[in-house]
Amino acid sequence: MASLTDLKLPMNNLSGQLPAEISNLTSMKILLMGTNRLSGYPPDRICSGGLLERLSVHTNHFVGPIPKDLKNCSRLVRVRFEENQLIGNISEVFGVYPNLNYIDLSYNKFVGELLRNWGLSHKLTSFRISNNKIVGPIPAELAKATNLQILDLSANQLAGRIPKELGGLALLFTLELNDNKLLGSVPTELGFLSDLATLNLAANRLSGSIPGQLGQFSKLLYLNLSNNRFTGKIPFHIGRLGSLQNLDLSLNLLTGEIPSELGLLTSLENLNLSHNQLSGYIPTTFDEMLSLTTVDVSYNKLAGPLPSNKAFSRAPAEALEHNKGLCGNTTAIETCRTMVKKSKGKLSKKVLISIVAPLLATLILLFIIAATLFTRSRRAKNMIETREQEKEICFGIWGFDGKLMHECIIQATEDFNSKYCIGKGGSGSVYRAKLPTGQVVAVKKLHELDDDEVANLKSFSNEVNALTEVKHRNIVKLYGFCSHAKYSFLVYEYLEGGSLAKILKSEAKARELDWNKRIQVVKAVANALTYMHHECLPPVIHRDISSNNILLDSEYEAHVSDFGTARILNPDSSKSTSFAGTVGYFAPELAYGMEANEKCDVYSYGVLTLEIIMGKHPEDLLLSLSLPTSITTHRISLKDLLDHRLPPPIDQVAEEVVFTVKLAFSCLHTSPHARPTMRQVSHQLSARKPPLLDPLDMIKLAKLL
């Protein structure tokens, strides 16, 4: 056994202690024992032969110090000790590793200081040492590890200033220094980190103003500066962070008005400005922040009306309390009308009557005249119309006039001529219509319905009207609806990229949809479903998630379409099932007549995700996985399932793909209760991905199921 070079036993159910004889394996290059239930002390010597390159014992129950000979184990490339209870002074037990590219020491009990030697690991791309008891300053020499992409030193006891030299780490996309004891201001040099996606400096003792240079992070998704001592105004430059999804500036000493430029953060989902000294009105530009789902502006000096979007109208009272005079159409606070009445309480009733009475009389007179004219007009129209003529209901939103829209669409499509048809589905056909204004819309003409299929025209229009409140960046906008004796149709935003199904069927377009774009599609759909399931009241169940109903814009951003159509129709109708899903995406419980719920959407999402990764519908794979004797399928290499029109993913993209496939399988569980919620799916997709323990071509489906 002395000649053994590789020992890989990760993700099993191993328990007990490692045998002391493992120290005798002097030829060992790779030792992988992560994600088990191993306990006891790690062996005293693990690199006695000096050949060890990969060492992974993470996520176990090891205690005590790490092997002593690691300090001189110069060939190390990848090291993982996270999530154990290991102890030791990192100032003494680690050396210089010229080949090291990944090390994770997080969630242990290490003490000591960060030495300058870590900067000599020039190939290091990921350095994680969070949730330990590390003290002292952050060494400026750490910036010499110029290949660093992830630096996580959070939840320690680091003190001193943030080194300005960190601004030279040009490849850095994650910087987490939160929950320490750092002092001073934020170095303006951090503005040079153009690839940064995550910046977390929360829960320190940082002071001074927030530098405007932070507005240069064009790729930033997460910014948390909360629980510090920042003063001054919120820099308007933050409004330039077009990709930002989470912004937390709470628990500081910020003053002045909220800059209107923050309303340009159209991708923002979570905003926390609470526990500051902000004053003035909340900018009206916040009305356009349609992706915003949670907001907290409590404990400030804000006044005036709330923005008219869901995040504010549905905010709980504690998210708005302790301000100077906020008002709005929400049960959490007073309405603006009530507040105005209170502020004008000294106004004489006689003065009010003298003003209101003439106005009221004039309005009543105008109403009588209008009603008379309308009645005469209606009678004249009824005399002209034939007795058999049917009623129609049209309405529009987003600035569209329903009646005018109907006439324009009939003209633009030449009464739904087939030459304008761009797609067909189970519930209807989709047409491309160019309106006189030049705007292009997509019109879904529903299949002809029997009289009993529409339960009630009034409730039908009310239901569609309710669906217009569903506003999310990854959901296609519904512009309006029309129900007519001849046809009914829905008017949607037109997306030039077309459906995901058509893209995957095209050799050329499928190659353009590379792995990064596909992962973004998977995340976008998850975000849309999370919004529908967890942010809408009542929740919206899509019931027809498929590649035909995922549309892409010119930037390959995905949008869910045809949402909620099944909720519009009478569920007791004989044809209602045609509106409740697409064959191949149905959850198995629907075959037994169970009522559709949000877990049916989760199953369809799992099928869709596999389709995106494989480049085709996973019909054969789903069938084989459902059989009790699918051992052969379990032995299939994941690489063989990937879309061969693309080169195999590498590095972090490979980690994303593997994690995504594993998550998709969890959505396909036969038991609805065992499937994750879409909120859990979105959270996991946005979290950091575990590094691959094996090369991509060695990963079998059995490890992902």
UniProtKB/TrEMBL annotation:
Coiled-coil region(s): none
InterPro entries: Kinase-like_dom_sf, Leu-rich_rpt, Leu-rich_rpt_typical-subtyp, LRR_dom_sf, Prot_kinase_dom, Protein_kinase_ATP_BS, Ser_Thr_Kinases_DiverseReg, Tyr_kinase_AS
EC number, as in UniProt: 2.7.11.1
GO cellular component term of the entry, any: membrane
Repeat among keywords: yes
Every Protein kinase domain range: 416-693
Swiss-Prot/TrEMBL catalytic activity: L-seryl-[protein] + ATP = O-phospho-L-seryl-[protein] + ADP + H(+); L-threonyl-[protein] + ATP = O-phospho-L-threonyl-[protein] + ADP + H(+)
PROSITE patterns: LRR, PROTEIN_KINASE_ATP, PROTEIN_KINASE_DOM, PROTEIN_KINASE_TYR
Subcellular location(s) of the protein: Membrane
Topological relation to the membrane, as annotated: Single-pass type I membrane protein
Molecular function as annotated in GO: ATP binding; protein serine/threonine kinase activity
Domain of life from the UniProt record: Eukaryota
This protein's record includes keyword Membrane: yes
Protein name according to UniProt: non-specific serine/threonine protein kinase
Taxon lineage: Eukaryota, Viridiplantae, Streptophyta, Embryophyta, Tracheophyta
Gene: LOC18603337
